[in-house]
Amino acid sequence: MPVHELEKSFQQKIDNEVKIEPKDWMPDAYRKTNIRQISQHAHSEIVGMLPEGNWISRAPSLKRKAILLAKVQDEGGHGLYLYSAAETLGMSREEMINDLHSGKAKYSSIFNYPTLTWADIGAIGWLVDGAAIMNQVMLTRTSYGPYARAMVRICKEESFHQRQGFEILLVLSRGTAEQKGMCQDAINRWWWPSLMMFGPKDSESTNSDQSMKWKIKRKTNDELRQNFVDMIAEQIKVLGMKLPDDKLKWNESKKHYDFGEINWDEFWQVVKGNGPCNKQRLDARKKAWENGEWVREAAAAHAKKRAERQKEKAA
Amino acid sequence: MNVIRKFYYGDIPEDKTGGTIVSKETKTDWPLWEVFIRSKQGLDHKHAGSLHAADAQMAIENARDVYTRRMEGVSIWVVESKYIHASNPEEAGELYEPAVDKIYRHPTFYNLPDEVNHM
Within 13 Å, how many C-alpha atoms sit on residue A13's CB side? Predict the structure, then answer.
């Protein structure tokens, strides 16, 4: 079949909501876009463990420690689901990890911000995971089968993350004046970076059109961001806290909240690697990889020995 | 140009020839395993996903950690991905063609009087 015929039948499948599976023919650009998006998503889950891991040993109670451990372990699991999905497109795990370590592959910029107080762990669960869920719920319907399936699994697990985050803040919001202050401060610092998680404005996003046509994405950055603002602007009332935006206001005619302008200079600075923790995060990942070298080697050696022993037994 | 790539098994592209992205890795990594989970006694094992592990024992232990953190399983099967053979989607037409015109294999093909219609 000539290429344009293949492309036509490919687009037809997408239009008819038929999922694309690994063995199916797909345009190179579709494969590439998915590899890029899924692997960067995987990297985000893995790097995302770092800011939270920072608080595991300092969580205020045994209960909170156990919860945070479970959450961070989930993020590791999510990274693995996604790496596996990306591998079905033909890129090896090791290459993806190399690309992360060399800086060639990006991860979500949000993880380049520091976690200064315990309230940050609440704000991350509520805002950062909340923003991620917005995106991920959409992606359960993405056109590439393995990606969609990974997202279904992830979404099931994520809702606990957001709820535990909100609960941390709820407890603080009902606490002492100092705890309330801590709660508000964390919200102040995490609000704008959370909005940036949805990416550049639609008018400036280069990959969006094609991704929509291929149903890799099903909502635009701005649509998702608006949904998120509408949700959080209501939820914050329960906390009795304020979002740090004077322009935040319900717009009756649009049936949406209006909100202020994001600091795009900051966004691009962090993307380019000049965020508060970019270097620290990458260094931590590289160190973990290097320090794990002997474990990987030992496991391989052990497996080899065991296989040989079994062969001897059989002989 | 050969645009139709033949893949070994469903989820694992042969020789890792992923379009223009050609794997440069030569070092042998831990092999890839496919994981199947039985969610409760009486149900089939169902494909849950894949993971890397040095051997079967480690694959089962990793599968426990990755796919059953919330009691999703009571039994795990793992098999190295390279041992799975899969049908080719390009040949789906011919492969399933024999079933297409045999609607009499379905119970709804038979119109029966109302009295026995719950048969």
Answer: 18
